Structure formats: C-alpha cells, structure tokens
Amino acid sequence: MEVKSITEQKSLLQTLAPGKRARLHRLLFEFGPGNGTLLFLPIDQGIEHGPRDFFPNPASKDPEYQFKLAAEAGYSAIACQIGMAEKYYPDYAGTVPLVLKVNGKTDVPPSDRALSTCNSSVEDAVRLGADAVGYTMYLGSPRQDDDLAQLRGVRQDCDRFGMPLIVWAYPRGEAIDKKGGAGSFYAIDYAARMAMEMGADVVKLNMPKINPETDKDAPAPYNEGGFSQEDAIAHCVESAGRSLVVLSGGSKVDDEQLLQQTRFVMQAGGSGVIYGRNVWQREWGEALEVIAQIKEIMLSSVSRVP
Amino acid sequence: MEVKSITEQKSLLQTLAPGKRARLHRLLFEFGPGNGTLLFLPIDQGIEHGPRDFFPNPASKDPEYQFKLAAEAGYSAIACQIGMAEKYYPDYAGTVPLVLKVNGKTDVPPSDRALSTCNSSVEDAVRLGADAVGYTMYLGSPRQDDDLAQLRGVRQDCDRFGMPLIVWAYPRGEAIDKKGGAGSFYAIDYAARMAMEMGADVVKLNMPKINPETDKDAPAPYNEGGFSQEDAIAHCVESAGRSLVVLSGGSKVDDEQLLQQTRFVMQAGGSGVIYGRNVWQREWGEALEVIAQIKEIMLSSVSRVP
Amino acid sequence: MEVKSITEQKSLLQTLAPGKRARLHRLLFEFGPGNGTLLFLPIDQGIEHGPRDFFPNPASKDPEYQFKLAAEAGYSAIACQIGMAEKYYPDYAGTVPLVLKVNGKTDVPPSDRALSTCNSSVEDAVRLGADAVGYTMYLGSPRQDDDLAQLRGVRQDCDRFGMPLIVWAYPRGEAIDKKGGAGSFYAIDYAARMAMEMGADVVKLNMPKINPETDKDAPAPYNEGGFSQEDAIAHCVESAGRSLVVLSGGSKVDDEQLLQQTRFVMQAGGSGVIYGRNVWQREWGEALEVIAQIKEIMLSSVSRVP
Amino acid sequence: MEVKSITEQKSLLQTLAPGKRARLHRLLFEFGPGNGTLLFLPIDQGIEHGPRDFFPNPASKDPEYQFKLAAEAGYSAIACQIGMAEKYYPDYAGTVPLVLKVNGKTDVPPSDRALSTCNSSVEDAVRLGADAVGYTMYLGSPRQDDDLAQLRGVRQDCDRFGMPLIVWAYPRGEAIDKKGGAGSFYAIDYAARMAMEMGADVVKLNMPKINPETDKDAPAPYNEGGFSQEDAIAHCVESAGRSLVVLSGGSKVDDEQLLQQTRFVMQAGGSGVIYGRNVWQREWGEALEVIAQIKEIMLSSVSRVP
Amino acid sequence: MEVKSITEQKSLLQTLAPGKRARLHRLLFEFGPGNGTLLFLPIDQGIEHGPRDFFPNPASKDPEYQFKLAAEAGYSAIACQIGMAEKYYPDYAGTVPLVLKVNGKTDVPPSDRALSTCNSSVEDAVRLGADAVGYTMYLGSPRQDDDLAQLRGVRQDCDRFGMPLIVWAYPRGEAIDKKGGAGSFYAIDYAARMAMEMGADVVKLNMPKINPETDKDAPAPYNEGGFSQEDAIAHCVESAGRSLVVLSGGSKVDDEQLLQQTRFVMQAGGSGVIYGRNVWQREWGEALEVIAQIKEIMLSSVSRVP
C-alpha cells in the first residue's frame, strides 16, 4: 500500500518537545498496534449522549467493560472524562495509556451555538498519568470566540507540561448547517486545517460524506462536485499537515464499511482510527474479533519511524 | 435483600485519596446508620424556595430545629449553605458532620436557563470543618457551559483538599422540558451518569417518574415504555457507577411512599436517602418517628465494607 | 416591651470571629444608642437616584450635611460609597463609624434585570478604617447568578478581614414583579432569609407592605391573606435568624408612621433602623428632633448584651 | 467675581494622598494658568470619531500639532490615548504634563448600550510619567454594571499609585434618551454626582443644555422648568462636591459662546475647561489667540490655594 | 519618487524601547528588501477561509510551500498562526523572521458581530523566537469592547517583552456596513488612526476603495466625493502617524493593479506590502517572478534610516 501524504516526509516526533515526544512515542510504538499507528477506544458517550448508548449492550454501561477491553485488546489508549479517569483508571494504570478528554457537554440543548466547556485540566491529566489530552473544538460555531480562547489555554498548558494535544475537530452550529452541514467534505476539510493551525498534535475527524445535494451550499470548489469519498479523506488528512490524523466512526455502521474506511484513512497517510460504539456496542467476543480485523489493516498498511 | 449493583463489587473508598477517604468514612461508618449507608438532612429550602416551606411547621423556620434534629436523631450529616454553616453549625461541630452546599439560587425567576451560582467555596468548607461539599448541577440547561466550568473548579478544589464531592444532579431547563421533563427516567438516568463523569463521589438524585405520556418525547429507548418505577431506580443507580447514590424526596409525600422508595434505592445498590421537607415539616416527635422507620430500612437492607 | 425573637436567645457576637466582633461591638455599644441597637444614616441616594433627592433640602446636597449630622446626632454609623468615604470621611474619622457601601447603580435604566456592581472592595473598607461593609443584593433578579457570585467574593473578603457584612436585601426584577412585587411580604420575607443564608451579619430590609390585591400573585401561604403589617415585620425579622435586622424607610413618610414602624421592628426583635431621606430631607433642627424621637424608642424598647 | 462653591471652603489637595497631591499640584500650580485652575487639551477625537475631525484643519491630523500647541501655549496638560502617548509624548516629556485616557471606543456602532473599554492601564500611565489618568464613564448606560466594575479597577489602581483620576462623566444610552437626553441638566447633574461618588478627583462635564421640550421627560424637579443655563452649570459643579470640575466644549461653537461658558463654570466654582475641536480646528495663530482669551478669563476669575 | 509623509520626519525606531527596536531593525534592514521597507508573506488563510484557498495551487496546501518561498525569495518575515509556527517554523528559524498572528477566526459564521479571539500569546511569540506579533482588530464591530480589551493585553505584553506589534486593522460588522462598508475610504482611514491610537508599531490596511454610491452613507467629509484612489491611500497612511503602514492585497487581482498599488503605498510614505494569495496562488517560478517585481518597486522608491 503506497502512502504519499506530506506527513510521511518527516516524522512528527522530530519537531516535538521532549515531553510530547516521550508520551506520543508510548502511544505510537509501545502500545496498540505498535507500528507508529494509533488505535483509540473512546468512552465519552455517557456524557455526550447519556446512558442511552449502553442499552444495545447492557454490559457496556459499566465502565469496567471499556477499560478491560482497551487493556486486553491492546489499544494505544483509552479516552475518557475526568470522573472515570479518577474512579476506574487507577486499576488499569500501566496496562493501557490514558487520554483525558478535558471538555464535554450533553446533547440535551440544541447545538446551534455549541460550546464544549472544560471540566478538567491538563494538570489533572498530568496528575493522573495520562499520555495525552483530548479537546473538542467546534469549527464554525457562533461561539468559536469562546471555544478558541479556551483551546488556547489548553494548548499552552500542553506546551508547558509536554503533553500531546488531540483535537476532536467537529464542525458544528447553525452557520455550518447553512453551508452544507457538519458532515460535509468542506466542513471536515476546514476542521482538519483549523485543528492543525490551533496546535493539535493529533486531529480526530469524522468521516467526510459526499452529498451532491447539500454540497451545493458549500463554498467553491467544494460545491462543484467531482470528489469521491476516497478523495475527500485524502484531502482532509493532507489539510491537517504534520498533525497526525485519526478517523472516527460515529454511530454503528456495518463491518465492511468500518474496515473500508479504516483502509482509506491509512492509505491517505492518516495515523489510525478511534471507534467507540462500533466496538463496545458488541459483546465481548465479537468486540475482540472486529478489533483484530481493524488492527490487521493498520499493521499491514504502513510502518512509521519515530 | 439481595443487592447486585456494580458499586458493590468494590468499595468506593478503595480508590479515593486519603482526605476523601477519611471524611467519607466518617459519614458512612461513624455517623448516621453507621453501616456504610448515608442519611442526610438538607436545609437549603430557605434559599431554593424561600421561607414558605416553613409555614407547615413554624418551628422549622428557626435553623436550630434542623440542626438539633440532625444531631439528636443521628444523621450522617446536615447539608446547608454558608450563612447557616457560619452562624449555627459552630454549636453542633463534633455532634453531626456538615455538608456545605456551595451553590444555590432562588426560584423567583423561571428556570428555563437555570444556573446555580457558587456562594461559597471548598476552602470555606475546609475552614468550617465540613466533611463534604454539595454542588447542584443542572443537567441539560442551556447554561451548562457555565455550570460545568464552575463545577470543574469545585471538583478540582475537592481533589486538592481531599474533600468528598456530592453532586445534586438535577435535570433542568427548557431543553429537557421538551424531551420528557426534568423528572423523567431519561433525564434522571442521564443526570446520574453525568454526575459520575464529572467526578462526583456521591450523587443525589430525585426519584425518577414513569409517565408514558411525556416519556414519548424522550430519545430511544426511554420512549419505548416497559420500564417500572423499580427498574428506573435500578438503572439510575447503576448509571452512577462507582459514585454512591442517595435519593431525595422532594415535596412532602405520604409515609408509605417514602418508605417504599427508600427500600427501592437500597435494593438497587444505592447508598441512602436525603429527605428534607418530608422530615422537618413534621413536629419533633413525629419527625423522630419517621426517621427511625427510615433508618430501620437502611440498617436492615445492606451492610457495606469500608 | 416584650421581645421574643430567636435572635434574643443568643447573642450574635458570641459566634463571630474576633475582627467582626470588635467592629460590631463598636457599632452596637460604643456609638449610636449604645444599648445593642443600630441606628444608621445612609447617604447613597446620590448614586441610586441622582441629585434630585437633595432639592427638598438644598443643604443636603453637600455631603458635609450628612456627615455632620451623623457625628453630632450620635449615629451608630454613616453608610456611603467610596467617593465620599475618601473625600469627606477623613474629617470625621473617630467621631462616627463608617459603613462602606461596596456596590451601587443608577436608576436610569429599568431594573427588570437589575444588578448592582461593586465599585469598591472590602480592602478599601479596611484601608479607610470602616467598621462594616454594605452590599446590595437583588433577590430574584434574573441576574442573581452574577449577583450571588459577586456577593460570595465580598463575603469571603469579610471573613478574611474580620469585617461585618451588612446586606441591603432588596427584591427586584421582572420575575418578582409577577409574584406580588418588590415590596410584598412574600418578597421581603424571602429576601431576609436569603441574606442570612448568604452570610449577612446584618440585614437591611424595606418595610413589607400588605396588599391583598397583588399578594394574590405570590406563592402560598402569602397569597392567602390574614397577615397584618405587624405580623409581616415579625416574620421577616425571624426569617433573618441570627442575622441582625435593620429596617429602612424609603421615601419620606409622615412622622407618626416612621415612629410606629420603628416600634414594630424593635418589638419584633429587630436591631434598629436606617432612615435616610426621612431624616436629612429636613432642616438641621428638625432633623435632630426626629432623630431624638427615634432614639428614644430604640433606647426604651430593648437592651441587648454583647 | 464672587465664588461660593462648596469646593472653595476647603482645598481638595488637603485630603489627598501624597502621590495624588504632588501630581495635581503640578497640573494646578506649575503648568497651565498656574493659579489653581485647569486648562486641558484633549486629543482623543481620532478614536472617538475618526480622522473626520481633522479635515477642517489638515495640520491637526499630525498629532505633533496638538502636542506642540499644548506645550507652547502653556496648558495644564494634554490628554490622549496610549498610542500617541507612546509615540509622540516622549519628545514633550517635561514641557507639558500628560493625562493618559485609559479607555475609549469608536462611534461606528450605535451608543444605545455604550461601554468604553480600557485600552491602557494606570500602570501604563505611571510608566509614561503621566500626571493623571482619564476614564470615560457612561452614566445610565444599560451596561453600567460592566462600566462601574471597570472603573473600580482603575480607581483602585489610582489609589495604589497615587495617580489623580479624571472622570469624563457622560450620560449615554437608550435609557437616558427617554428621560430628557444625554445633554440635559438632569443627566449632567446626575453624572457629576456619580463621578464624585465613584472616586473622581476631577470631573469632566459637558455643558448642560436647558430644553423645556425634552426636559419634561426628566424626573422631578428637573421637569418643572425655571432653571437658567447659569443655574444648571452651578448645580452641576456643586453636585460634584469636592471633586474639581472642568467643562468641555463639544463640537465647534462661536467664540463668544465659548468664552461665556468659560466664565460661567469659573463663577460656579469650577476649576477650568477642556476644549479640543474649539481650539485645534483653528490654524496655529488663531488657536493661540483664543487660548489666550480663555486663559485671561481663568486667571482673572479666581485663585485657589493648594 | 518624492515622499512627504509625516512618518519620514523622524524614524520610528528612535522612540522605541530597545527590544522593539532590535526586532524591527531585523525586519526592516536585515531581511527582505533591506532598505527600511517591509515585505511580509501571510499564511493565515487556512484559518480565516479554510483550505479552499489552496485549490488554485495545490502545492500551496502544504505549509512548506509558503515557508520555503518566504525564505528563498527573501521576505522581511512570514506571518502565521501558532500551529504552523510550532510545527513548521523550527526548520526555518534563522533563515526568515517570524510574525506570530496571535488571533484569528473562521469565516463560517457571519461577521456582523465579528471578534477575533487570541489563540496564542506574546509569550508564545517570545518562546518561538518571533520578531513581531500580529493582531487583527475589527474596527467598529459591535464587539469592539471585547476586542479592545483583548488588544490591550497583547499591547501590554508587547511593551513588556519588547515585541513589535503589527495590527491588522480591518473595519468589520453590521454598523460599518451601514456607513459605506468595510472597504471604504472612511472605514479604512478610521482603522488606520485607531490602530495607531491603540499602540500599533505597524498597521496593516486593506486597499481603500472609492465608491461614490456607497460612500454617500459615510460621515462628512467622506460622503462628499472628490477623492481619488491615490488620495485615499495617502490619507490612510498619514492617519497612521508614526506607525508604519503595510498594504494588503486581498483576493487575487491582476499583476498591473498589484504593482500599481505597491507604488501608491510607497509614494504615500507607506513602508511596504503584505500579499498572500496574490503570491502563493502561483506556481513556484511565477511566484518568484512577481515577488521580484514587487521588491524592485520597494527598492527603487525610498530608503529609510534606522
């Protein structure tokens, strides 16, 4: 599999300060697939959507399920909020790295002016032995002024503590809805660049969707059509520049689609995937199985040097 | 009485820092029922509703009434705001533990965009010798951004000072009203999980109400029906994970209902109850009587190890 | 005159920290009537209403008038804002105590969302040798979130510096207007309790007005009628618990009414009065006369021990 | 010319802290007319209105024009914002005192909710060797809450650094427009008192205008008529109490009017004038001439002692 | 070419503190044209517009393109946001100076109330070895209160660290739209003065456009017509006083226009140009060519002394 991304020309780690380098090295080479790729298990749906996501697999309601899965299936890291990091992570410290998500919000109010407030800090992450922090940035929200100011604080603390910064880069809000929607190629391409410009070490993107009908509302050249799904992913990965890219899955899709998009992101020069419901909404055995298939793709696709 | 909750598999105290452990131990084993359960007396209605709640039992207007009741009837702790903690608690220091409620608001303006501002701090609680702080979080309020930021500060101070954090987890605001209401199973189940994710050591929940008519506006699977009141309580307790759960009573109900819901929450793996008006809107003797009945249920239901 | 209030069972000073105790002792026993009661002269109308209040007695426009009156007529303290405290109080330091009002606002914009911002600090009060600070809290304003946060800061500084806190507890805003109005028994009773809960050492209340027509919009039992003016005052004083209560006069009323309400508040267990326009909108001799009558009532009614 | 103002009974300087005293002494007795009066040259129109004010006299666009004028014509001080203070004042340090205006705003958006944000600090003023700071307070603006909080910070820094505080006291906003307007006697009288109450050492007022038509919307007694222009000025000066008063000119008026209002303010016990466009919208020679006439009035009217 | 601007009477550097002087000297005399002029390459379009600007020249999407261009074509400096400064600048440190743009925003939401939030700090700039910081000020935006407060902080840090401050002075928002628009002579002239007043060392302006139709909505004398494009540029440069002026290009225009406006700004006493898309939306060879033409004009027009 040939990979031509600009991120391959030069190792990300080379330009990083020692703290970030040591911690990212752990995620890329000492845990997970181990070949310089990233496989994250997110368990922040309890705050973002509420417990309703746990009904398809009742066992998943107990956070032990995800922690055990992350540790036993060999993930690069598990990503969660402060409450679970304090009450459940202690038992798994050393067996799987921790990404502390420092902001979050419920989905009860509408998201037309979305802002995700910090409920923990980079210092909390340091105290808990985390190897990275996660921050959700809402590209294009009418409250981007507050969002970017908050992100600045997190980024500066990351620089101060040598903590890698993973930006969940989500288009959101009433303005993006009028320009093709939060899932469009335009929106996600913009989000990828924005996250890089704001100082992300790793960018988490949703899968861009090509939809000729709504893409017409996006600015040129996105409204001109002619882009395939594969093109879109490749563009988005490139827009993130030297920031590593991981792709997320969203709500549960069929297995073939999941594996196909994993291949796409790796081919485009991305660094890995972060699948939540697609993994832990399955029973234990079934979950281990699909994880093995995902890892197989990641291991066979590329190998990066530190 | 068989209890299967996930909170029973492992003692909460085991993962806590020494300060939190010492203080919670006092609430769970040295005061109140003493068998690892929690019986709280709240007296914050004077700020949340005004003096109107004291008319049914005029004696209750003098804060001495509640302090004396908490001390003599053997409560785990009394929960109140800063003014009463400074002016009345000194006489009771040592005889009953104090939970300092650090935020509050009046009910004069409508609560469609509710936010409960901090009027005291964790440091105030430390200075006053409190054994825990209480924080009211309004799940799903349009002002959740301010709420969660404020809660972060309180939680971090709790971590810094080793002070247990009790979260009054109340769904509130115009958005939850459109999704089945603040008292629905959906809303309270979400609140329970949210409080745990935000770092609560103890979660205070209102009794979830099953109402087929309004539950239809909630997201799946809550809108599908088929849940009993008992189911709902069990789910909510489980959603709080390793955070202990105490159930509140709200406005005065009949005694049988009060005792029945006490049984439900203990059966579900909850840790106790926090009844205010249901207790102190009675004359002294009558109050002592109902407290004895509640304690009897708590003592006979479970026994937890530190 | 028999007084049964709960505040009489126990001296307020007993539970106070040394700084507060020393300063309140000065106000209660070394200045003013000197028998444990409080007689304040407020001169904050120039900011709250503008100079229009000075036209009835042109001499009152010069702040010297009020300072001289407070000193010569023997007040417990004079209450004013920072500008006058800095420019006029130096000449009177030692002859009459100072209460620094730390917040205020003009009445130019409507008060449907009233908030009174701090224009000075507790530290300013310490620097100027004040014996207490005054804070205006707007009970039930839609901006109570900002108000209570601001009050927290003032209260904490008071605790830090041992400075007594006097809360001007005023119902205000569009929400209270819909529930019977800012002057109703319901509103003022709530304000009294709220101020105590927020940590006031002294609460300043407006005279509650019984108005069957508008009281119908208040919550039960206030909407049920049957309360006399005297009842209302007694209830409000009691709602403030161990916080001392002083009653204010508002715009100028006739002398008999003024003296009658003075008697009512003292009988109810209140600690004194704070009359501004009712006093200094009179010429010098006439002002001294009415002050003498007020003091006579205060001296003959009660005597409190430190 | 007889002057009876309350400010004459006692020197302002007597109650001031040493730093304020030393700096105000410089403005009152060492520069400008030198007889205890104040003659200020303001050059903040470039920010408040934009360069349009410079077209009538193109030379005035170069800030050198105003600095040279202030130095050569012998002003008490020149008042400007941070940019000019940093880039032009260094050449004039020692030849004319500096008043640093610490806040300002453009007039592009409507001023119905006006707020003038600080763009520099008292510490900047200290660093630049200024002898006073200027602050624009918008009396009665719906954003008075933010305004007064900001002013508190400036006032406290002035107290800390011994820096005299000059308050530009301007009625402004939609609420004052409904009560007779920003230029009315009512509005300016209120502004004068407010500035004094907020701790101003010097108050800058616009000339109050008597307008029977619009004055009817003001509160009593302002709506009752019977006040002359001279009365209004005298009242406003008196409302400022011990704060010194300087009168401004606004947009260019005819010379006789300018000199007449100068006489009025001095007669009323005011301390001087601050004319901008009325002076520097003239060519050099003509400007010197009118300044000489103004100074003549100031010198002949009064003499104040330090 | 004769230049009469006020900025020529005196070198800017003479009044600057040592840190600013050393850094600006580097930009003016050690890099770029080297004759006291400024040639900047901006690459902030990825955040301000998104990746859509990179489609005309796909190579430009990789930030390496702009960094290499700036270094090899001999620019005074490259201007970018924190993300690129951290991930790409290290390889070019020493070969081309860095201007760190400290604020920015996406163009997804409408800009009627535009505010550009800081995503990095002057301290970040110091840490990265930058020689200046860039700040985007939105003249006349309804949120100018927040904007100017934020700018104050940046300006003060610049003074503290001796870091030159470049203000991107852009009229913006619903109010300026009603007064002739963001590109009008009135608006840009005001922006130039405002930036100088706020403490800019260098002001970046868009080319003012003369449009008789919309200029009628501007205040006098801008609405009176009779100004040529050349006049307008000259006025704007002069309004910036001793702050150096660089002109930007906006979206791609034809080459002759680009060179003509370069001549205009240099003739008017401006200090240089900052062209982004007009340069890097060309292939490598073509880009170098147009840069050479621009530099030729800058070198032949003026020569400034330090």
Short structural summary:
5 copies of one chain form a homopentamer. Chain A is an alpha/beta fold and 306 residues long.
Structural description of this entry:
By secondary structure, chain A is an alpha/beta fold. Helices cover 40% and strands 14% of the residues of chain A. Chain A contains 13 helices and 10 strands. In chain A, helix 8 runs parallel beside helix 10 and helix 11 (255-267) packs parallel to helix 13. Residues 1-10 of chain A have low confidence and may be disordered. Chains in contact: A-B, A-E, B-C, C-D, D-E. Chain C binds chain D through residues 44, 46-47, 50-52, 55, 61-64, 81-84, 86-88, 90-91, 104-106, 108-110, 115-121, 124, 127, 146, and chain D through 6, 12, 15, 139-142, 144-146, 148-149, 151-152, 155-156, 159, 171, 173, 175-176, 179, 186, 189-190, 192-200, 219-222, 235, 238-239, 241-243.
Q: How do the helices and strands line up, and which of them pair or pack?
A:
The structure is a homopentamer of 306-residue chains.
Chain A: H1 18-30, E1 38-42, H2 45-48, H3 64-72, E2 77-80, H4 82-87, E3 98-101, E4 103-104, E5 117-118, H5 122-127, E6 132-139, H6 144-161, E7 165-171, H7 174-177, H8 185-197, E8 202-205, H9 212-215, H10 229-239, E9 244-248, H11 255-267, E10 272-274, H12 277-280, H13 284-301
Parallel strand pairs in A: 1-2, 1-10, 2-3, 3-6, 6-7, 7-8, 8-9, 9-10
Antiparallel strand pairs in A: 4-5
Helix pairs in contact in A: 8-10, 11-13
